[in-house]
Amino acid sequence: DTAVSQTPKYLVTQMGNDKSIKCEQNLGHDTMYWYKQDSKKFLKIMFSYNNKELIINETVPNRFSPKSPDKAHLNLHINSLELGDSAVYFCASSQTPTSSETQYFGPGTRLLVL
Amino acid sequence: AQTVTQSQPEMSVQEAETVTLSCTYDTSESDYYLFWYKQPPSRQMILVIRQEAYKQQNATENRFSVNFQKAAKSFSLKISDSQLGDAAMYFCALCTSGTYKYIFGTGTRLKVLA
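Output (structure tokens, whole complex):
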């Protein structure tokens, strides 16, 4: 059973389009995250939700809008896609939003903007 | 600000040999956690090992162990009896109390030679 799953795994789209990436975790965790991994493999947190409430919002363009319909889901919607948005996006979850908790990652979604 | 530095972009090790991956970090917090994640070509981020800063004993997980030097802010990963399946990108991460967001290093690509 997949603990943290993401759909789609690959996404190729044109500049200016709007796209969404979905994430689901079946671990019963309260906290979910979105990370971005750029072409140099650098991983940086974007957002975090705890119990459907936004708790981390890094300096991310407002074209990116996370949505958490329930504790088990955290979706990422991106408007007006730009070339620089090409990256791998990882969803993760942890039991609670504390530093002691291990975060479990999804398989990533590779987004390519043409 | 917290930072994590991995000074080795790439390392190679002969199968069955031992290799050590370096990681240094900087934080003014006294309560934090350190993690090593492995990212094979499949892109999946897999937890290798974690260390609580308040514990003096170095963490060990089978063939993986850490050398945690708190005063020097160093957290290296030792892989013993290297296997072909260990080939991957390895990321060091820091999570400080109260922030619950991972700060990742830039990664070290490990090649295992048969």
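Chain A has a mean pLDDT of 93.
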